[in-house]
Amino acid sequence: MDPGYFFLPGFVDSPSEGVDFLPLPFRVYEIGDITGDAIPDIARFLTDGDGDDVLAVQAMPVEGELADQPWDIVLGGVVRYDWIDLEDRFVGGGWDHNADGINDMAVGAFTLTEDKGQVYLYDGPITEARTTDEADATLARFDSRCGADGTYRGCDQVGTYTKSAGDLDGDGYTDIAIASRGSYVDDMMFAGTVWILSGPLAGPMHIEAEATGTILGEVDHSYMPTEMFTGGDLDGDGRDELVLAHQDARLFHGPVEGTRVYTDGITFIDMSWDPAYHISFDADVDGDAIDDMAMIHYTYSGMAGMHVWFSTLSDEWPRPWAL
Q1: pTM (2 decimals)?
Q2: Nearest to 158 by CA among 191, 116, 107
Q3: Cβ contacts of 68 within 8 Å, gap of 6 or more
Q4: Is residue 93 classed as helix, strand or coil in its secondary structure?
Q5: For residue 197, how far is the Cα from the chain centroid?
Q6: pLDDT digits (tens, 9 = 90+) for 227-269
Q7: Phi, psi for residue 262 in degrees, rounded to 5
Q8: Could you give the C-alpha distances from 188 to 52, 63, 183, 220, in angstroms and in order?
Q9: Distance between CA 178 and CA 158 in Å, rounded?
């Protein structure tokens, strides 16, 4: 990326005087260096000829305006938009699952068709379009009950959320967290499941067989999780943490291994009354060399408040401190 430019994902309202913004007819995501030239690149979603959303990469820098670029590095895997933001369906921005120093990408292709949802992983450098057949790893989990009645009720919906999980086990490889809000758990339909897979990953992989950790929903038709947040190391042990939100928010300290249930996580706030929220915990804001956590929650009329938890090494974590 040219040092003279920077990108603000989302929307900009009333820019400061003297700042020249270039409006774009689409949302842009900064994904780190995906082409291997040490320059951060960007991604966006395109609608293909079938009306489906696909992920496209643009190598930086570019000549001319972004809106006029061909965006011809398209990664296979149809990304469905429903109640989940498209940006939660792919992994980029510094995810290097094989620790080769070049960022990689994964696309969660959640569908309600015979595909039943899969995650396609593409190793960097990514310099040309790739189809799903050219993915370096394919992650799937097929339940024979999915579609048994012809309606695909209770489908696995693998890839509902697909996110980098940091290094949960401290082995030096970046892990990936994959959610299926529609999976069966025993006989409970739409209970939901989150799988943790540790890098490096390659070839066709069955998620249940390869997962180093599994978190199960516990209620029929509960669609766990509502949101999934990944970030930093909150307890200073060299392993990152995972937060799942589902009416409340639950913290899982790394490593996330074996089989757990959602209520095994540490509850740190009840968000059942909040229609929207965002949690971030990848920065040290109080200078103690341990990452801290911030949460912004919204109401239908706008931002309702911000909470910050300063991480400590005591058993009393989290220690609330509100702004």
Answers
A1: 0.81
A2: 116
A3: none
A4: coil
A5: 13
A6: 888 878 888 888 999 988 887 788 899 899 999 999 999 876 6
A7: -55, -40
A8: 31, 53, 8, 5
A9: 7
